[in-house]
Automatic annotation (TrEMBL):
Active site: 52, 163
PANTHER family: NEUROPATHY TARGET ESTERASE SWS (PTHR14226:SF29), NEUROPATHY TARGET ESTERASE/SWISS CHEESE D.MELANOGASTER (PTHR14226)
Motif (GXSXG): 50-54
Segments carrying motif DGA/G: 163-165
SUPFAM superfamilies given in the database record: FabD/lysophospholipase-like
GO molecular function annotation: hydrolase activity
Ranges where the PNPLA domain occurs: 19-176
InterPro entries for the chain: Acyl_Trfase/lysoPLipase, NTE, PNPLA_dom
Pfam families according to UniProt: Patatin
Name of the protein described by the UniProt record: PNPLA domain-containing protein
Biological process according to GO: lipid catabolic process
Annotated keywords: Hydrolase, Lipid degradation, Lipid metabolism
Listed Gene3D superfamilies: Cytosolic phospholipase A2 catalytic domain
Amino acid sequence: MTRARPTLREWLHEGPFALAMSSGFFGFFAHTGVLSVLEDEGLVPSRASGSSAGALVAGAWASGVDATTLGRELEALRREHFWDPGLGAGLLRGALFRAKLESMLPARRFERARVPITISTHDVAWNRTRVIDAGDLAAAIHASCAVPLMFHPVRVDGRWLVDGGVSDRPGLRGVPERERVLFHHLASRSPWRRKNDPALEVPQRAGLVALVIEDLPRVGPYRLGEGLRAMKAARDATRVALDRVIEGSIVSAPAAS
């Protein structure tokens, strides 16, 4: 019989759940580590959602890329695979990144994904979140990952879009309110947020449980070597977190040093 305060594993086994993954600069390594444990444990989400780095991992998985395959793709990632400077509203054109996405996704359209998937982007002209749930999946992921000033904006259905984390950092806007949600939260690197309770960043929503992994290695375009450490740390912490009791709406576990 499930105790009054279940462990994360028990909560996930209680019924279908959506998996939402937040934005976070090059956080796709950590997201993939979390996803690999869910797959290993047979805890498969019935819906996926994400923003920026979370959109990449959630979208790739919904398209049919398993966590092991995605991990291998990230392990082989080098800066030259996406570094294509060009004139425009950002340093990188994004053409290499888009080509990589298109070659990697088994299902190229939302309608062919194995579970419903929603991607949060930010509409530049309207200055608000635009959730995409139909059409070209690679285009939506590309737009959601288009970090302002780093990548050129991406035109989708006649709208100029950038990183979904600008206005929907959790990547939750497209998940129906009635859904149970496992939310993998990548903590902000903001100095103000770092000195405050990380739980303040977790959205308050009925039916949501947030997995917070603290002190993950920092990854970036010039620190890709830290990516595998981040993936392993997230994987190890998630295994620990599965058997921890949910406190309020949060399960936290430290990354291994």
